[in-house]
């Protein structure tokens, strides 16, 4: 017998701090006060291997086949939602979660979706964030000095012509005397980084500024970031820094590789694409990035294309791996000396119509099973003009959102 799933309009804006159920917050996808928050877990699974995106599609459609869907709201992001967090490397586990209850808010409209026979669950009570314990940090796989040495090695290989670009990541480990509050981290990130997509899927939490792909009906959008400069905190000086970033040959070269890789991956699926000639400077709370929004329209293929196919084609892009992909990937495995896990992998949501938003898991951390430690990550694009000291400074700036979220008590 099919399981009922119901979506109805919700009267009031579901601000994060005013939502309460008896279920734990398990998934989020929030940007600028809009998005989705999931509670509980109806079903979940993991996939791995080279066919993980196809396997994820198969599992999702199998679950949809068991549901009797009543959706009075309609539109992208309503009804049953699959939250996904894919590993960077196919040999590692990717996570798929279907929440039991989902609160959504977009364009002034709020809705609630729940699975089961019960009437609409109550969300009127106030749920306080748990207090975090004392936080201590320790080096991850490589010390600062060791990581700079790896950057220097990568630059040498690029200058010799072995490859054009490689993205090198590093990690930092935070330990807490108490269980780290997911809700507290989400609250901080949504408040302080409103132009990013704040996500939580199976203990992977972060605030990414980069959108791998959005599919809304037949319109595809991808936001590519590559090229970074740290903000000074002085508005006039930051305007000058933004101008220098926009003219930096090193950063423009890095950005061009990333944009080209996305445009080439989307081309076979699109009847038309729009790739701006020049990037714009995206201002975040602590850094600025060169950014380009690539858009396209799906072609009328005999075999319908869904978001799973787009993810498989786009990942890994030059923004998180390098160019050429196979050589950059091999160099990453040689130099990083760590498992990326789901860092720099596709993360986001997919609805029953096949629409969705999938970001790249950047500015992120993965909580341990105990919840008392978390590995946070950052990465930098290395090209011929890269300087190890500058790259270390950039990596520290990219660690800042998660590091600060762990340290700040609000």
Automatic annotation (TrEMBL):
Statement: the UniProt record of this protein carries the keyword 4Fe-4S: no
Keywords: Isomerase
Single GO molecular function: isochorismate synthase activity
Reaction(s) catalysed by this chain's protein: chorismate = isochorismate
Chorismate-utilising enzyme C-terminal domain sequence ranges: 144-398
EC number: 5.4.4.2
SUPFAM superfamilies, per database record: ADC synthase (SSF56322)
GO biological process: salicylic acid biosynthetic process
Transmembrane is among the record's keywords: no
Family: Belongs to the isochorismate synthase family.
Name of the featured protein: isochorismate synthase
Organism: freshwater metagenome
Taxonomic lineage from the root: unclassified sequences, metagenomes, ecological metagenomes
């Amino acid at each position: 017998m099919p399981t009922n799933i119901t979506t109805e309009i919700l009267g009031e804006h579901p601000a994060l701090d005013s939502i309460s159920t008896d279920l734990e917050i398990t998934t989020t996808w929030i940007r600028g006060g809009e998005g989705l928050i999931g509670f509980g877990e109806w079903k979940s699974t993991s996939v791995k291997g080279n066919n993980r995106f196809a396997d994820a599609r198969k599992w999702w459609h199998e679950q949809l086949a068991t549901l009797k869907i009543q959706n009075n709201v309609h539109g992208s992001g309503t009804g049953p939602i699959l939250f996904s967090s894919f590993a960077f490397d196919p040999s590692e586990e990717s996570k798929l979660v279907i929440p039991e209850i989902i609160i959504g808010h977009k364009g002034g409209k709020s809705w609630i979706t729940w699975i089961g026979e019960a009437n609409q669950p109550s969300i009127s009570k106030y749920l306080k964030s748990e207090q975090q314990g004392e936080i201590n940090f320790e080096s991850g796989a490589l010390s600062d000095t060791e990581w700079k040495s790896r950057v220097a090695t990568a630059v040498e290989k690029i200058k010799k012509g072995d490859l054009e670009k490689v993205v090198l990541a590093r990690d930092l480990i935070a330990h807490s005397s108490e269980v780290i509050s997911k809700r507290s981290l989400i609250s901080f990130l949504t408040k302080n980084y409103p132009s990013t997509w704040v996500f939580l899927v199976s203990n992977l939490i972060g605030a990414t500024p980069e959108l791998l792909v959005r599919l809304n009906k037949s319109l595809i959008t991808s936001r590519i970031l590559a090229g970074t400069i740290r903000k000074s905190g002085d508005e006039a000086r930051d305007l000058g820094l933004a101008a220098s970033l926009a003219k930096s040959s090193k950063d423009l070269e890095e950005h061009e590789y990333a944009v080209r890789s996305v445009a080439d991956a989307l081309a076979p699926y699109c009847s038309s694409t729009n790739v701006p000639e020049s990037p714009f400077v995206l201002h975040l709370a602590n850094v600025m990035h060169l950014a380009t929004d690539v858009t396209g329209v799906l072609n009328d293929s005999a075999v319908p294309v869904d978001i799973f196919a787009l993810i498989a084609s786009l990942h890994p892009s030059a923004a998180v791996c390098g160019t050429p992909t196979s050589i950059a990937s091999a160099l990453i495995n040689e130099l990083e000396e760590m498992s990326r896990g789901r860092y720099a992998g596709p993360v986001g949501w997919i609805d029953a119509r096949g629409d969705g938003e999938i970001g790249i898991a950047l500015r992120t951390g993965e909580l341990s099973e105990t919840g008392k430690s978390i590995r946070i990550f950052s990465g930098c694009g290395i090209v011929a003009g890269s300087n190890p000291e500058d790259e270390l400074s950039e990596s520290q700036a990219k660690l800042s959102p998660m590091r600060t979220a762990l340290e700040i008590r609000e």
